[in-house]
C-alpha cells in the first residue's frame, strides 16, 4: 500500500475534469427531479393519480423500479430509479481506467518500479472512487433537504447513490483483474451491470404481477438498492448487504492481484495459427476478426433481453388490472391492449439507446485503431482510408441492426406476434444510426474529441428520462433522434421520419468520412 | 532512372510546433539511403508525409514518381513500411499479421516469408500481446521484407532487436542490395548499421536537412586525426589554417586536420622526419556529434 496517497493525488490530477463532471451531474439529478415534480402537479390529488397510473405501467416499473407511495420524495426516488445504473457505470469505468488501462499501457510497470506497493494503484483508484461516491451522496442529501424533503429519506437516498458507486467500483476492480485488457475489463463490468439491471427489471415486473419471477430482483445488487425505499420504508439492510459485497469484491480483487503477473490476466495467452486463413485478406475480414466478439456479446445480450421483455409481458396486464382496479382507470389507460402497447412502447426506445451504445462503441474502434498505431500499418498498404474506416463502420451500422432484430425476435417468440415485435424493435434503427453518424463525424472532424460521441448518448438518455417531466420545449426534445421514431405499437408506422433520420445519419457519417480523408493520421 | 524519393522544402506544423522546417530528401532508385537525426528531428513525420498519412503545409514530395497524398493507395502497392513503434492486434497471431499485411499490399512470397521467419527465429503462433518489442519488430520486418515491392521504408527497424538479430537484418538488407532493384530508406540511430548498409545518407536536425551525400563525401567535410612521432622539431604546423587542436610533447604531435589542409600538414611532418604515423579517419560518430551538438554552439 506504500505510495497510495501519492497515487491518489495522481488519480485526482488526471480526473480533475471528469470526476467532478459525473459526481455533480449525477448527484444533482434527484434535485432536478424534485423541481420537475414541484411544477408538474397543481394539486395533491393530481400527484396521487400520477403515482397510481405510473405504478400500473409495467414499462415504467421495468425502467425505473417499483413505486409504492405517492409522496414527492418517493416519486423522485422512483423516477430517478435508473440512476444507480448510471452511477455504477461511472464508478466501474473510473476504477478500470486507473487500474487495468494503466497496466495495459505500461504505465503501471513504471509506477510499480518506484517505491510503490503492489496494492497501491488499485487502492488509490478504489479510494478515489469511493470518496467520489460519498461526495455524491452528500450532494444528494443536502440538495434534497434544501428542497424541504424529509431528512431521513434524503440521507437514505444519498446512501443509495454512495453504495451504488461502492459496489460497482468493486465490480470494476474485479473485472480489471479478470481481463488482460482494459477493453475486456470494461466489457465484463458493463456485462455485469447489464445482467443485474435486467434481473431487477424482470423480477420487479413479475413481482407486481403473478410474482413467479420476483426472486430475480433479489439476485441483483441494483434490486437491493431499490429496496432501501427512501422516504417510504427507509430500510437500511440493503446498505449493509452492499457494503459486504463491496468488501468481498475488493478482497477477491486484491487476492487475484497477488496471484498474477503484472500485465497478465486470469486467462493465460494461448498459441494461435502460424498462418492466416485464406479469408483474412481484406479490411472487412480484419474488421470481422476485431468486431465479432463484441457482436456476439451484444446480440446474445439483446436476445436475452428480448426473452425477458417477452416473458414479463403477461405480468404487465395483471399489474395494471390490480393496481388500477377494474373499471374507469383501467379503461383510461386503454384496457389490456393499451397497457401492452404502453409497455412495449416504453421498452423499445430503451433498447434503441442501448443499441446506440453498441453503435458508438463499434464506431469509436476507428479512433482506437488510429491511436494504437494499427491504422498506420493498414493505411501504408493498398487500403484507402474510406475502405479502412468503412470496414469498422459496417459493424457500427449492421451490428445494432442484428442486435435489435434478435431482441424483437425473441420478444415475439415468447410473447407472440413475431412480425410486430420485430417491427417495434427495428424501427429504432435509424435513430441508432444517427448517433453512429455523429461518432463518425467527430472521428473525422475532431478526432481528439471523438469520445464526446458518448455525450450524445447521455444527452439522448437524459432527454428521455427527464425531458417529459421537466416539460422541455418541443425543440429541445426534438434534438434526440429517438423523439422522431414512431411510437409503435400504439402509433402506426410512418416512413417519412425514418427516412429523414436515415438521411441525417448518412449525411453525418459521409461528412465524417470526407473529413477523415483530408486530415492527418494519426490526427 | 528517376529518384525513388524526392522531397523539397517540406514544411509540417503541429499547432505552434514546427516539425519539418524546409526538409529536403533525395533517394536514388536502387540505393540504400540512411536517414539520420536526433530524437524529435522529424524523421517519422517525414516518413508519414511520404506515406500520405500526413499532409504538408509546404514544399513538394514525389514518391516513386507519384504524389504521396493523392496517389497514396496506388503507391502503397509498390512499397512496404516498418513503423518505428509497432503494436499489433492482441487477438491476431504474428503469422496472421504477416499474411494479412502482405495480402493487403497485393501478395507476399510464401517461401521467402517462411525463410525470414526462420532466420529471425520468430514464433508466428503467438498472439499480438505476447510478443516483446523486439519480436513485434520482427513481425513487421518479415511482413515488409517478404513483400515483393520496389521500396522499403524502415523507421528504426532494429530498435529492440538483439545483436544477433541485428546481424540477420544486415545480411538480409545486403542481399536486397545485391538484387539491385529495391530502394531502401533506412531511418536509424545505429551508426555502424548505417555505415555497413547505406550507399548515401541524409542527416536532419530540427526539421531540416543538414548534410546529404555518400559517407565518403561527408567524411571529406570533416577532420582527420593525425598522431605522429617525429625525429626533428616541426614548426610550420601551427601556421596552417586547417590544423586544429595541435599538441606537441617529447617529439610527438597530435592534431586534427581538415581534408584540404592534409597535404601541406603531411609535408611539414615529412620535412621533420617521421618515426611513426597514425591517421584516424573521422568516424560517423564524430560526424554525428558535430551535427547534433551544433545546436548548443
Overall description:
Chain B: It is a peripheral membrane protein. The complex is a heterodimer of chains A (523) and B (297). Chain A is 75% helix and 0% strand. Chain A is mainly α and 523 residues long. Chain A has a domain at 1-26 and 84-261. In chain A, helix 11 (151-178) packs parallel to helix 14 (237-258), helix 17 (335-363) packs antiparallel against helix 23 (453-470) and helix 20 packs antiparallel against helix 21. Chain B has 297 residues and is α/β, with parallel strands linked by helices. Chain B is built from 10 helices and 13 strands. In chain B, a hairpin with a 2-residue loop joins strand 1 and strand 2. In chain B, helix 3 (94-104) runs parallel beside helix 5 and helix 4 runs antiparallel to helix 5 (133-145). The radius of gyration of chain B is 23 Å and the shape is elongated. The relative contact order of chain B is 0.14. The A-B interface holds A 180-181, 269-277, 280-283, 285-286, 289-290, 293, 372-374, 376-384, 518-522 and B 48, 51, 53-55, 72-74, 76-77, 79-81, 83, 85-93, 95-101, 103-106, 123-127, 129-130, 140, 153.
Put the structure in a nutshell.
The complex is a heterodimer of chains A (523) and B (297). Chain A is mainly alpha-helical and 523 residues long.
Secondary structure elements and their pairing?
The complex is a heterodimer of chains A (523) and B (297).
Chain A: H1 4-14, H2 18-27, H3 29-40, H4 44-55, H5 58-64, H6 72-79, H7 83-98, H8 100-105, H9 107-112, H10 120-146, H11 151-178, H12 182-208, H13 221-226, H14 237-258, H15 283-324, H16 328-332, H17 335-363, H18 365-371, H19 374-379, H20 385-415, H21 418-426, H22 429-445, H23 453-470, H24 474-477, H25 495-518
Chain B: E1 3-14, E2 17-28, E3 32-36, H1 43-50, E4 58-63, H2 72-76, E5 79-82, H3 94-104, H4 110-119, H5 133-145, E6 151-155, H6 163-179, E7 183-187, H7 191-197, E8 200-205, E9 208-214, H8 215-220, E10 223-230, E11 243-249, E12 252-258, H9 262-272, E13 274-280, H10 284-292
Parallel strand pairs in B: 3-7, 3-8, 5-6, 6-7
Antiparallel strand pairs in B: 1-2, 1-4, 8-9, 10-12, 10-13, 11-12
Amino acid at each position: 500500500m506504500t505510495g497510495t496517497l501519492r497515487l491518489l493525488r495522481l488519480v485526482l490530477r488526471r480526473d480533475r475534469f471528469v470526476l467532478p463532471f459525473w459526481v455533480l451531474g449525477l448527484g444533482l439529478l434527484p434535485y432536478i427531479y424534485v423541481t420537475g415534480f414541484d411544477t408538474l402537479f397543481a394539486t395533491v390529488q393530481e400527484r396521487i393519480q400520477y403515482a397510481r397510473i405510473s405504478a400500473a405501467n409495467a414499462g415504467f416499473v421495468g425502467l425505473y423500479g417499483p413505486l409504492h407511495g405517492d409522496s414527492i420524495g418517493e416519486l423522485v426516488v422512483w423516477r430517478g430509479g435508473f440512476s444507480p445504473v448510471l452511477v455504477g457505470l461511472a464508478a466501474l469505468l473510473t476504477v478500470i481506467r486507473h487500474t487495468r488501462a494503466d497496466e495495459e499501457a505500461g504505465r503501471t510497470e513504471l509506477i510499480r518500479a518506484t517505491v510503490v506497493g503492489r496494492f497501491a494503484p488499485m487502492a488509490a483508484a478504489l479510494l478515489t472512487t469511493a470518496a467520489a461516491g460519498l461526495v455524491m451522496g452528500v450532494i444528494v442529501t443536502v440538495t434534497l433537504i434544501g428542497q424541504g424533503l424529509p431528512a431521513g429519506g434524503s440521507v437514505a437516498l444519498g446512501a443509495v447513490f454512495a453504495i451504488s458507486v461502492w459496489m460497482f467500483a468493486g465490480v470494476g476492480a474485479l473485472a480489471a483483474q479478470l481481463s488482460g485488457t482494459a477493453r475486456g475489463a470494461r466489457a465484463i463490468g458493463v456485462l455485469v451491470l447489464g445482467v443485474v439491471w435486467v434481473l431487477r427489471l424482470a423480477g420487479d415486473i413479475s413481482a407486481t404481477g403473478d410474482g413467479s419471477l420476483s426472486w430475480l430482483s433479489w439476485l441483483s445488487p441494483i434490486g437491493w438498492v431499490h429496496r432501501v425505499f427512501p422516504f417510504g420504508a427507509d430500510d437500511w439492510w440493503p446498505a449493509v448487504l452492499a457494503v459486504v459485497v463491496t468488501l468481498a469484491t475488493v478482497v477477491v480483487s486484491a487476492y487475484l492481484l497477488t496471484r498474477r503477473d503484472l500485465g497478465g490476466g486470469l486467462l493465460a495467452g494461448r498459441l494461435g495459427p502460424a498462418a492466416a486463413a485464406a479469408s483474412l485478406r481484406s479490411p472487412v475480414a480484419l474488421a470481422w476478426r476485431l468486431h465479432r466478439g463484441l457482436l456476439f456479446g451484444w446480440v446474445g445480450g439483446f436476445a436475452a433481453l428480448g426473452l425477458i421483455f417477452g416473458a414479463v409481458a403477461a405480468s404487465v396486464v395483471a399489474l395494471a388490472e390490480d393496481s388500477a382496479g377494474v373499471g374507469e382507470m383501467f379503461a383510461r389507460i386503454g384496457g389490456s391492449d393499451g397497457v401492452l402497447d404502453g409497455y412495449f412502447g416504453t421498452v423499445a426506445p430503451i433498447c434503441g439507446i442501448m443499441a446506440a451504445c453498441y453503435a458508438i462503441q463499434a464506431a469509436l474502434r476507428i479512433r482506437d485503431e488510429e491511436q494504437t498505431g494499427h491504422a498506420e500499418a493498414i493505411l501504408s498498404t493498398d487500403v484507402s482510408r474510406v475502405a479502412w474506416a468503412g470496414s469498422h463502420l459496417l459493424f457500427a451500422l449492421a451490428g445494432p441492426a442484428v442486435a435489435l432484430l434478435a431482441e424483437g425476435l425473441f420478444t415475439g417468440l415468447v410473447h407472440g406476434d413475431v412480425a410486430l415485435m420485430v417491427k417495434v424493435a427495428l424501427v429504432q434503427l435509424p435513430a441508432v444510426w444517427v448517433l453512429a453518424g455523429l461518432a463518425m463525424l467527430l472521428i473525422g472532424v475532431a478526432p481528439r474529441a471523438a469520445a464526446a460521441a458518448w455525450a450524445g448518448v447521455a444527452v439522448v438518455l437524459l432527454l428521455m428520462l427527464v425531458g417529459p417531466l421537466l416539460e422541455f420545449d418541443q425543440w429541445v426534445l426534438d434534438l434526440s433522434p429517438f423523439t422522431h421514431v414512431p411510437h409503435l405499437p400504439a402509433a402506426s408506422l410512418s416512413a417519412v421520419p425514418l427516412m429523414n433520420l436515415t438521411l441525417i445519419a448518412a449525411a453525418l457519417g459521409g461528412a465524417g468520412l470526407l473529413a477523415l480523408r483530408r486530415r492527418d493520421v494519426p490526427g | 532512372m528517376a529518384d525513388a524519393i524526392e522531397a523539397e522544402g517540406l514544411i509540417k506544423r503541429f499547432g505552434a510546433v514546427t516539425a519539418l522546417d524546409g526538409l529536403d530528401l533525395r533517394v536514388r532508385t536502387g540505393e540504400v539511403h540512411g536517414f539520420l537525426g536526433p530524437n524529435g528531428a522529424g524523421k517519422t513525420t517525414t516518413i508519414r508525409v511520404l506515406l500520405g498519412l500526413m499532409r504538408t503545409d509546404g514544399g513538394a514530395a514525389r514518391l516513386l514518381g507519384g504524389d504521396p497524398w493523392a496517389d497514396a493507395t496506388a503507391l502503397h502497392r509498390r512499397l512496404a513500411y516498418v513503423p518505428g513503434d509497432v503494436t499489433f492486434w492482441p487477438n491476431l497471431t504474428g503469422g496472421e499479421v504477416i499474411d494479412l499485411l502482405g495480402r493487403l499490399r497485393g501478395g507476399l512470397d510464401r517461401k521467402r516469408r517462411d525463410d525470414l521467419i526462420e532466420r529471425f527465429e520468430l514464433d508466428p503462433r503467438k498472439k499480438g500481446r505476447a510478443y516483446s518489442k523486439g519480436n513485434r519488430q520482427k513481425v513487421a520486418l518479415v511482413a515488409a521484407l517478404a513483400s515483393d515491392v520496389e521500396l522499403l521504408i524502415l523507421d528504426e527497424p532494429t530498435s529492440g532487436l538483439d545483436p544477433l538479430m541485428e546481424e540477420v537484418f544486415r545480411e538480409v538488407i545486403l542481399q536486397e542490395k545485391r538484387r539491385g532493384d529495391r530502394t531502401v530508406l533506412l531511418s536509424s540511430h545505429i551508426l555502424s548499421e548505417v555505415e555497413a548498409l547505406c550507399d548515401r545518407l541524409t542527416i536532419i536536425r530540427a526539421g531540416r536537412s543538414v548534410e546529404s551525400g555518400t559517407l565518403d563525401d561527408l567524411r571529406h567535410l570533416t577532420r582527420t586525426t593525425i598522431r605522429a612521432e617525429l625525429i626533428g622539431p616541426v614548426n610550420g604546423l601551427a601556421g596552417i589554417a586547417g590544423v586544429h587542436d595541435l599538441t606537441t610533447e617529447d617529439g610527438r604531435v597530435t592534431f586534427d586536420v581538415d581534408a584540404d589542409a592534409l597535404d601541406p600538414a603531411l609535408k611539414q611532418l615529412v620535412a621533420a622526419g617521421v618515426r611513426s604515423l597514425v591517421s584516424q579517419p573521422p568516424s560517423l560518430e564524430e560526424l554525428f556529434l558535430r551535427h547534433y551538438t551544433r545546436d548548443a554552439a
